Amino acid sequence: MDPREARSKYRSKDVVEKLFSSMKSDIGIRPIRAWTDDAVDGVLLIGFLAQAMVSVTRFLCEPASSTATKFITDAMQKLTLTVVNRRDGKRRFVLSNFNPLNEAVLGCYGLFSGVPTV
Question: Which of 28, 33, 71, 114 has its CA 20 to 30 A from that of 42?
Fold first, then answer.
């Protein structure tokens, strides 16, 4: 194999290794304890979809464009939904634990506008 081909293969391997490292540490994919190929494929698919969503979020949302995956996922995991059942049988939904990053991300997807009230 010539040096250019070897370098190209090494660089593509490095990209894949960094993606798996990010999936393990930032996205939170745990060691795969599965016995079937379908189960392994399912775990990897979920991890890649989560990684893709983070990449799309970086592309669409300016505050997230230079933010590490770990901080994006941490900000989104802190959001809390409280469901309050009222006496008249209706439900009230209350989102809390907003910070500027998760507010911006929700806004980029059209899921939030305005100042949250708790």
Answer: 71
